[in-house]
Write a structure and sequence with these properties.
With about 180 residues, the protein is α+β, with helices and mostly antiparallel strands. Helix content is about 40%, strand content about 25%.
Length: about 180
């Protein structure tokens, strides 16, 4: 549960810490706005991906299912700056599939937490493996990190790509190649 009062206090202290006046007209309501925003952008901390992946449908085939270009926004746990991009998810069903929107919801559950991209990629793959019990899962995330573009090295446009493979995707290079071909 998000503690709105602690967030408001922290924002006031932060504003003072950078030399601002929290009672200045433009900043008076900033602590409240940020507390409400944090409830939204960190809402994944109290969500369980299993809830979204619980409703499945029986299928007779075991052909690859790919949902690509799932836009997400997350927050780097190291600098509390945004990173954002696209997630691509594939799985090979083993008798059951999930509604396509549930794949995007799974991305949201994990993206709406203080996070690192490498962990986010693995969490999505692990959740699909756990709750869908498919023959295999592959997740690829491409993201731009504001901690790389607006501070430090300052390289706007650079993208970080991470991949997680489970089951038959980890074992069969041909399936991996099919996944990558389908993305282009």
């Amino acid at each position: 549960m998000i503690d709105q009062e602690k967030i408001k206090q922290a924002v006031r202290l932060l504003l003072e810490g950078i030399g601002e006046d929290p009672s200045r007209e433009g900043l008076v309501e900033t602590p409240e706005r940020i507390a409400r925003m944090y409830e939204e952008i960190y809402g994944g901390l109290t969500e369980d991906a299993g809830v979204h992946l619980a409703k499945t449908f029986i299928v007779e085939h075991s052909e690859m299912v790919l949902e690509k270009d799932i836009t997400f926004y997350s927050t780097c746990e190291h600098h509390l700056l945004p990173f954002y991009g696209k997630a691509h998810i594939a799985y090979i069903p083993d008798g059951r599939v999930v509604g396509l929107s549930k794949l995007a919801r799974t991305v949201e559950v994990y993206a709406r937490r203080p996070q690192i991209q490498e962990q986010l990629t693995g969490q999505i793959a692990d959740a699909l493996e756990k709750y869908l019990e498919p023959k295999g899962v592959m997740v690829m995330i491409e993201a731009e990190h504001m901690c790389m573009t607006m501070r430090g090295i300052k390289k706007p446009g650079s993208k970080t790509v991470t991949v997680a493979k489970r089951g038959v995707f980890a074992e069969e290079e041909a399936l991996q190649n099919t996944f990558f071909r389908m993305l282009s």
